[in-house]
Amino acid sequence: MPRNVIVFSPADVRATNGSGRKGNGDGRAAKRDVLLEAAIELFGENGFWNTSTASVAKHAGVATGTLFNYFPTKEDLIREVMMYLKREMIGAASVGFDPIADLRDQLELLWFNGLKWGMSNWTRFNLMEQIRVSERLTKTDLDAVGEPYQEMMTLFSGGVEGGRLQHLAPELIAEIMFRQGQAVVEYLLWNEAFSDAERNAHLETSFDVFWNGISKK
């Protein structure tokens, strides 16, 4: 599989951070997405702990009571924001996924796509970490992410059962992948002077480190 490359500058992509997204579909689902996007924007700017539900409703252009029709409590809103972002990240990471490719190639694609999403959407990526460390999510919440997350767990389980990966829980492999990926994204965004070649060398080597850590020799 050809090595993946990311050819944009972190300085350029900081300005995107998911801006310009709109709710998908019509009616209730679209309004729900508008509320989630408003929450993401304000949580990213001020921290979810400093953001009131009233301010989210105002930012979304709806009454506070309308927000509560979708999310009865602030805790519900925070959890749904996390689920929404997890689905978005996993969906972006899975673009171009080949179910019959070699496991290493499959994980390399998920790695590069996921890090590209993180670098292009740093506010959203960082907000996921803020919510995670607040310990507001349970395994039940993670299971609620739905099919994309379960497909990743199946991929990791198959690697373990097939003897390609170390005997680790699929959830732990996913956590290792996210933690290491987060460190790489942060490092590359801090070092804006890197050339594309330097950036991609770090991406390639960091994937090798991840793969060597979870695979059986």
Query: What is the rounded distance between the termini?
Result: 20 Å
- Range of helix content: 55-70%
Q: Give the C-level CATH assignment of the largest domain.
A: Mainly Alpha
Q: Beta-strand percentage?
A: under 5%
Keywords: DNA-binding
Domain HTH tetR-type: 29-89
Protein name: TetR family transcriptional regulator
DNA-binding region: 52-71
Write the layout of secondary structure elements.
Blueprint: H1 10-13, H2 27-46, H3 53-60, H4 64-70, H5 74-93, H6 103-120, H7 122-133, H8 139-143, H9 147-161, H10 170-190, H11 196-214
InterPro entries: DNA-bd_HTH_TetR-type_CS, Homeodomain-like_sf, HTH-type_TetR-like_transc_reg, HTH_TetR, Tet_transcr_reg_TetR-rel_C_sf
Pfam family, one: TetR_N
Domain HTH tetR-type: 29-89
Question: How would you portray this structure in words?
Answer:
The relative contact order is 0.13. The two termini are 20 Å apart. α2 crosses α3 (53-60). It is built from eleven helices and no strands. With 217 residues, it is mainly alpha-helical. Helices cover 69% and strands 0% of the residues.
Give structural attributes.
globular; Tetracycline Repressor, domain 2; single chain; 2 domains; disordered N terminus; Arc Repressor Mutant, subunit A; mainly alpha; 217 residues
